[in-house]
Structures are given as structure tokens and as C-alpha cells.
Design brief:
Number of helices: 19
Number of strands: 8
Strand content: 5-15%
Strand order of the largest sheet: 5-8-7-6
Oligomer: single chain
Helix content: 55-70%
Largest sheet: 4 strands, antiparallel
Distance between the termini: 63 Å
Organism: Lachnospira hominis (ex Liu et al. 2021)
Order of helices and strands: HHHHHHEEEEHHHHHHHHHHEHHEHEE
Protein name: Replicative DNA helicase
Radius of gyration: 33 Å
Number of domains: 3
């Protein structure tokens, strides 16, 4: 069997799998059948198209407008998308229903998508995690942003990874300027800005990796150099060329017999294109400066890592600098003599013979003590998040069960008031409190505790782990009078009624 083929299969497999992982969430999402949701009420919707549209919306807001997205803003965009492209006119309640369901699927209920693959080098299964949408809480508001993997996936669906996307778009921009399609050129520059923003996110990820793990950071840096930095010189030249083309177009254009509307429209389009290109050039220059700084930090990290592991015998950099400054290669004589003229004459000190004869051996052989440091367990960010969600869900369910023991029926509004009195109003501003009741109300009847607990959802798995050995509690959820309860800014739930029921095997 050919050695090159075997090496390509084994050593290149991990890189191929990591390149494929950004496509994995999309195909997992397209497997979701909307025909099973609400008795096929939204079966006309295409999951693949909606996912791509939502990703483009987040790229527009996060990268072009440089702002994070709130959940109401997403619902507004979703409603426009559904009504425009599918002709499906939804009420406000229906829009929240299907919009929330699809958004939860894209977020994967707050967890990353786990992409499993086999590593033939280490001969074991590996798990790589990838997210489509990320979230943060600031000022009691949940803000959403698109992840770098999702941006790269969206761009890769139209472009070739082994080429510089910026250079490809620059060539297209040159053709559009020559064809006097200045409006289309502005759209191309927007895509260039999008790619520069993506590279900036990747560069920041490399910096974060370098700060936590030097060797993983070096590997990520080399990959970034290969896929992003190596085209910087060509991209700078193309920026300059297109900038000159725009100036030339401004000089050539002139009004006809009268300064008509078409002339001013063209002038406006050229100025808009010029301004957008200046923004792109500034961002590209900032990225270049950040990459230069990252290169210096990487070199320092590599130097420190080597010095901490291997003692330096010959400083070749110092020798080269001295030889260059003095114009004299004689500094290499000690190094070359050590290689070409080894000293074969060996002598033995007579004093060493006396020491060997008079040395008394130890009465027993001392055993070398080897201390084994326990390796620190690595806890990933998503694992901390899952633990936080689980702790909060169990805490809320314990309070709900306690309330059911005290009172046979009560509303969610009454329960919220009780929680607020016991734990302060901050408990209602917790995003997990909101998501708990959103998930809980997906079913009309619940059995908590005992062997009959359900295991249909992410929340069921959490509660079963903590309550399966407890006495079973059965309760049902009835829809309220349509009253909406605001838990935190931008997060509302419908008021419902909880009824305790008798448990029977």
C-alpha cells in the first residue's frame, strides 16, 4: 500500500473532521421535521432556508451594524421572513410559538452541538463542540451573537476556502467598477467587511487559545497564517488598485447638457462605494496590526516554551547577528572545530583513582521518590453552563413541589409573587427561571419523582437525575386567561394554573 496514501488518510483525518464540524449543526437542523410540531401547522416552512436567513440576519447586525441582537429583534425579523417568503401570515402568539421553537433548535437548547469523530493518530474517539448562536447577559437583558464557526460556515457555502475571499471579492469589485456598476460594488465591499470581521474574530480566538495553552495556540496560529495571513500583501495591493479605479471614475464622470438626476445618482453611488472601501481598508489595516502584534506574542511564547524545556547550547541567532554586524565569519570557528575536529586525546586524573578506591558504598540503595502530580481536571465553559442550568432547574422545581404540597391549585403569578417574597425580585430576572417555565409548559401533565418520570427533553433528563428516588408528585398545567407575565426585560410568559393530582400506578 502506498505510504503517501496511508499518511494522507491517517495524519490528515483530524484536520478534515475539524473543517467539517462547522457544517454539522446545519445538517442536524435540517433533519428536524416541522410536520410533527403542532399537528403540522407549520409544515410549509423549510428549515434549511430559515436557518440560512437567520444566520445572515445575525451577520448583518453583529458584523455590519456592530451590535448584538435581542430576542424581540429576532422575532421581528423572523415574522418578516415567514410572511415574505412563505406567504404565512402569523398572529403575534403564533410568531412567538414557531419563532421560539426554531430559535431553541438553532441554539440547541443552550448547549453546543457535539461533533464526534475518530482520531486515527491517538486511536480514540474525540468530541469537538460547535455553536451557531452565543448569548450573554448584560443589564438583565439577554444579548445574542453569531459564533465564528457559523460565520465561516455561511461564507463557505458560496466561496472556496483555499482562496482568499477578500482577493476574490476584490477582483469582482474591479470588474464592477469597470462596468460602472457602483451599487453592486458597494455590496461586494460589504462582503469584504464581513470577511475582515470574521478574520478578526478568528485572530482573537487564536490570542485567547495562546493565553491558555501555548502549544494549542501555536497550532491555531499556524493554521491562521496558512488560511488568512498569507494573502495580506496581495489584498493590500488590490485595495490600492480599486481605490485608484474609483478616483479615476470620479474624474471621468461629467454631467451631460444638464445636471440631470442620473448624474447625481451615479455620483452618490460612487461616493458611497468610496466610503465603504475606506472603511474596509481601515479595518483591514487594523487586522494587519493585530496580526503583527499576535506574531510577536507567538514568537515570544515559542521562545519561552523552548527555554523552559530545552537548555540552549548554541544561540544561533546571536552568532548570526554578530557575524552580520562585524562582517566576519570567524565566530563560527569554535562551532565548526567542535564538529570537524573532535578531541580524541583522553586523560584520566590520578586523584580520581584514589577517590574510587577509598569510597565506601552505601549500606543500602536509596529508592528515588517520584512525586506524581495529580493532573488538574479541565472543566469546559459549556459544562459550567450546564451545571448552572441544572442547579437552577432543580431549585425551582423543589419550590414548585413545596407549593403543591401546601396548596392544591395556584397560578404562575401567585408562585412568582411567593418566590419574589422569599428570594427577592432578582430570582425573576434569572434567564434560567424564564427558560424553566417555557420548557415546563411544553407538556400538560408532569410526574416528578418515582420510576414513571418522563425522559423526553433536556429538562426531563436534569430533573430525573435529582428526583427519581423521591416520592412521586403529579401535577397538571392548565392555560390561564391569556394574561402575560413579564419576568425580565423582553421576556414574557403566559399565566397558567398548576393543579396537584393523585398519583396511581
Amino acid at each position: 500500500m502506498a505510504v503517501n496514501m496511508v499518511n494522507d488518510i491517517v495524519s490528515g483525518h483530524r484536520a478534515r473532521m475539524l473543517n467539517l464540524k462547522k457544517y454539522y449543526p446545519f445538517f442536524k437542523l435540517t433533519e428536524i421535521s416541522l410536520s410533527q410540531f403542532k399537528d403540522g401547522k407549520y409544515e410549509i416552512l423549510d428549515m434549511g432556508y430559515i436557518v440560512m436567513g437567520i444566520l445572515r440576519f445575525f451577520i448583518e447586525e453583529n458584523n455590519f451594524n456592530e451590535k448584538d441582537v435581542t430576542y424581540p429583534e429576532y422575532l421581528e425579523f423572523f415574522h418578516e421572513l415567514i410572511s415574505r417568503d412563505f406567504g404565512l401570515l402569523l398572529s403575534e402568539e403564533e410568531n412567538r410559538e414557531i419563532g421560539g421553537y426554531i430559535f431553541d433548535k438553532i441554539k440547541n437548547d443552550g448547549r453546543p452541538f457535539d461533533f464526534e469523530y475518530f482520531d486515527p493518530v491517538e486511536r480514540k474517539k474525540r468530541i469537538s463542540r460547535v455553536r451557531m448562536i452565543e448569548s450573554t447577559i448584560r443589564d438583565n437583558i439577554v444579548w445574542y451573537t453569531i459564533s465564528p464557526d457559523a460565520v465561516e460556515f455561511y461564507l463557505d457555502t458560496k466561496e472556496i476556502k483555499d482562496e482568499s475571499r477578500i482577493s476574490v471579492q476584490q477582483l469582482l469589485l474591479e470588474k464592477m467598477i469597470q462596468a460602472k456598476n457602483f451599487k453592486g460594488g458597494t455590496e461586494v465591499v460589504e462582503r469584504i467587511n464581513e470577511e475582515v470581521s470574521r478574520l478578526a474574530l478568528v485572530q482573537q480566538d487564536v490570542m485567547n487559545t495562546l493565553a491558555s495553552d501555548v502549544f494549542a495556540g501555536i497550532e491555531a496560529y499556524r493554521d491562521f497564517v496558512e488560511t488568512g495571513m498569507r494573502w495580506f500583501d496581495d489584498e493590500e495591493k488590490l485595495f490600492k488598485k480599486n481605490s485608484d479605479l474609483i478616483k479615476s471614475a470620479l474624474e471621468k464622470i461629467s454631467p451631460g447638457g444638464q445636471a440631470d438626476a442620473a448624474y447625481y445618482k451615479t455620483i452618490s453611488e460612487i461616493y458611497e462605494l468610496e466610503n465603504q472601501l475606506k472603511v474596509a481598508m481601515n479595518r483591514h489595516a487594523q487586522l494587519l496590526g493585530a496580526c503583527t502584534h499576535m506574531q510577536k506574542l507567538t514568537d515570544d511564547a515559542v521562545r519561552h516554551a523552548k527555554l523552559s524545556q530545552i537548555r540552549s547550547h548554541v544561540d544561533f541567532t546571536s552568532l548570526l547577528k554578530k557575524m552580520t554586524e562585524n562582517g566576519d565569519a570567524s565566530v563560527l570557528i569554535p562551532l565548526i572545530n567542535g564538529i570537524l575536529k573532535p578531541n580524541t586525546k583522553k586523560t584520566f586524573n590520578l586523584n580520581s583513582i584514589d577517590e574510587a578506591l577509598t569510597m565506601r558504598p552505601a549500606r543500602y540503595q536509596e529508592i528515588e521518590k517520584v512525586s506524581v502530580k495529580k493532573q488538574k481536571e479541565i472543566i469546559f465553559e459549556d459544562e459550567l453552563e450546564e451545571k448552572r442550568i441544572a442547579d437552577n432547574y432543580v431549585f425551582i422545581m423543589k419550590n414548585l413541589i413545596s407549593a403543591l404540597h401546601k396548596k392544591e391549585a395556584f397560578t404562575l403569578e401567585e408562585f412568582n409573587l411567593s418566590m419574589k417574597n422569599m428570594y427577592s425580585e432578582n430570582v425573576l430576572k434569572n434567564a434560567d427561571y424564564f427558560s424553566f417555565f417555557v420548557n415546563l409548559c411544553q407538556k400538560k401533565k408532569h410526574i416528578t419523582g418515582g420510576a414513571d418520570m418522563d425522559s423526553e427533553s433536556f429538562m426531563d433528563d436534569i430533573l430525573k437525575k435529582y428526583f427519581e428516588n423521591e416520592a412521586p408528585v403529579v401535577f397538571s398545567i392548565d392555560e390561564g386567561n391569556g394574561k402575560m407575565l413579564e419576568l425580565m426585560d423582553g421576556c414574557e410568559v403566559s399565566d397558567v394554573t398548576f393543579h396537584r393530582e393523585d398519583y396511581s400506578n
